[in-house]
Amino acid sequence: MLVTFTCKAYADITMFGDVALGMLKMMGHSETVPGAILAEDVPAARDRLMRAVETIKAEPAQNESGNRDDDSNERPVSLAHRALPLIELLAAAAKEKCDVMWR
Q: 16 forms bridges with which residues in the sheet?
């Protein structure tokens, strides 16, 4: 499943469902798709998401080993990096005082 976040002030952002649902939960919303945040609630949702990301960044990194090919030098994308576009969307929506929706 893919979830697309939209608002009038920023380009649409599409995320994998599990990541998007986790971020919705961090923002203090249910994991219901579709859904929306009213313009007056956007700043609080953005702040909650930013605090959750900062908390996760502060936790010690887990050692990833095992099921990877030896040829693979790829690192997983951190939650902080995945959250950045959504945080920017929420900031733009707060600045322009517009609702944020997801489907």
A: 2
